[in-house]
Amino acid sequence: MTVDPGEYRAPREAGSGFWKTVGIPARGARLHEALREGVSYVVYKQLVSVAGLEHQELARYLVIPPATLRRRAKAGKFKVEESDRLYRFAEVLKAAIDLFEGDRERAVHWLSNPVRGLGDRRPVDMLATSAEVEAVLDLIGRLEHGAFA
């Protein structure tokens, strides 16, 4: 049996609706390019909307000062480092929503409250570095698989 390469369709990525909604490619070369170029300010507004947060609240979690946020809104896009933090927040938010089986409100509540598995820190307070984000994502993975320790 031969397969016509023109007919091949990559499997639809799980959760691609979330990534499309926020306006960030989920992974791969398109994601890398988007982060290097700086994501659009529209992505920030979409994340605020999806998470049900206030603009300044998300900026605080992402360690983006108010004056910088105003400059990015005016310029229409974020710098590389800020874009990476936006992606990390989106990644954690998506994982938490998945953990709570699509219940965005429960996911945001969990992210906003101290979690014993993170040393009683709030997950939203652990978004500034990739190591902290990795710890949050690791805990979410363990919770999904029933491994609490």
- Rg measurement, Å: 17 Å
What would you call the structural class?
Answer: mainly alpha
**Number of domains as seen in the coordinates:** 1
Overall mean pLDDT score?
89
Biggest sheet: strands, sense, closure?
none
Pfam families: Xre-like-HTH, Xre_MbcA_ParS_C
Domain Antitoxin Xre/MbcA/ParS-like toxin-binding: 95-146
Protein name: DUF2384 domain-containing protein
InterPro entries: Antitox_Xre, Xre-like_HTH, Xre/MbcA/ParS-like_toxin-bd
What does this entry look like structurally?
The chain is an all-alpha fold. Helix 2 (28-37) packs across helix 6, helix 6 crosses helix 7 and helix 6 (80-99) packs parallel to helix 8. The chain is 59% helix and 0% strand. Residues 1-15 have low confidence and may be disordered. It starts with 15 loop residues before the first helix and ends in a 5-residue tail after the last helix.
